[in-house]
Amino acid sequence: MDKTVADLATVVAGIEDGMTVMIGGFGGAGAPIELIHALIDRFRTTGHPKDLTIVNNNAGNGHVGLAALIEHGMVKKLVCSFPRSADPVVFTERYLAGRIELELVPQGTLAERIRAGGAGIPAFYTPTGYGTLLAEGKPIAEFDGRAYVQERWLKADVALVKAETADTHGNLTFRAASRNFNPLMCMASRHAVVQARRVVPAGAIDPEVVVTPGIFVQAVVEVADPQQEEDLNRANAVYPGEA
Amino acid sequence: MTVKLSNDQIAWRAAQDITDGAYVNLGIGFPEKVAQYQPPGRQAIFHTENGILDFGESPAKGEEDWDLINAGKRAVTLKPGASFFHHADSFAMVRGGHLDVAILGAYEVAENGDLANWSTGPKGVPAVGGAMDLVHGAKRIAVITDHVTKDGRPKLVERCSLPLTGVGCVTRVYTSLAVVDIEGGRFVLKEKLPALSLEDLQAATGATLVVAGPVADLIVPEL
């Protein structure tokens, strides 16, 4: 078994119009910049994929990564908890012009909906959001004298994920706080695509330290020196920049 | 009214109630200041929603590791004994009742414990982050805030007028003028600035301040 794919273009080739794509990361930590940019490259040459529903905690920052994906008009809808950033101009302009849909989800509910999607749990009850605008229209139930809101699972066609080390079976480790949503999104998507700083043979990761077991991962590509969103934004980078 | 605590002084006062070894989440922005004022000999363990327990101060400029950030997307460092975890585990810590204290900012707090701190109305881009999760689960939900808005309106009110973050969740409010507990759907005054009369404090408050027991002087060092 070898889940390694040689290049970024091949690994994103199966992503089609209208798909739901989960993208890992919280701010720049764990954001798979190279995978996102490979998707933009494909759109620039083929016009596809478009009309994507993107699930991410944020709405991008500056003009790289997720913000660049939105700037290219590839995103129909965003499911996120916090569509603000130091430089959220790309999403903000489109949202205020009515050109992109937003489903706002409390951060913990977003994480649990993704986890539930990966775990085969179609709905669950949470105290979060009870009595607020974000619970409107959702079923409410009382358990042990307290009211809870029913929330539904969230699943995706594809996840784009950044890991530190992957082996050829798709076992993953992450670095520091770049773990965030990445392991959950691997679980909740039919096809989890991972960029890893290092791809190693099966057996080279101690099973005791595997964070995401390979069963949740379908494809792995090595990106040895990944870009970091914060560094790109400090340099005022724009993707793809001048041709 | 000219006498009031600075934000640093409010943060200092809130920090005095955090016990040694407490697991604490500080909301992004102003509440992050609380970490600077832990009393000597006490060490709280700070949780950040994006997956770190026991993080410390920001590194020097140029030393940032952008995989090591807090919920405010600020670069942080680790303390000995830190741990990493994914977002579902992080919010299990929040909702599951494992945190001792969460300290948040507020637009409005109501006497029934309702909190409004995420939206000032339908204009602009709505953003909630982890606020709605954080108000459920921690054993104490404290708010730190100026006592009144910039244009002088009370932030402690009978009922919130802005969209709610959570219902009946706040247990204590540290303001620029007073420390107020929420008990049985009422604001109960615990401490006030000694130079401030009860009448003046009440006049700056949008709901009845109940005095049930002694009211201590709110005394905070110059910072």
Automatic annotation (TrEMBL), chain A:
One annotated GO molecular function: 3-oxoadipate CoA-transferase activity
Keywords: Transferase
SUPFAM superfamilies linked: NagB/RpiA/CoA transferase-like
Listed EC numbers: 2.8.3.6
SMART domains: CoA_trans
EC class (word): transferase
Tagged with keyword Transferase: yes
Keyword Ubl conjugation: no
InterPro entries, per the entry: 3-oxoacid_CoA-transf_A (IPR012792), CoA_trans_fam_I (IPR004165), CoA_transf_BS (IPR004163), NagB/RpiA_transferase-like (IPR037171)
NCBIfam families hit by this protein: pcaI_scoA_fam
Family: Belongs to the 3-oxoacid CoA-transferase subunit A family.
Protein name according to UniProt: 3-oxoadipate CoA-transferase alpha subunit
Organism of derivation: Prosthecomicrobium pneumaticum
TrEMBL record, chain B:
SMART domains per UniProt: CoA_trans
Gene3D superfamilies listed in its UniProt record: Glutaconate Coenzyme A-transferase
EC number: 2.8.3.6
InterPro entries (alphabetical): 3-oxoacid_CoA-transf_B (IPR012791), CoA_trans_fam_I (IPR004165), NagB/RpiA_transferase-like (IPR037171)
SUPFAM superfamilies: NagB/RpiA/CoA transferase-like
Keywords: Transferase
A GO term, aspect molecular function: 3-oxoadipate CoA-transferase activity
Similarity comment text for this entry: Belongs to the 3-oxoacid CoA-transferase subunit B family.
Name of the protein this chain belongs to: 3-oxoadipate CoA-transferase beta subunit
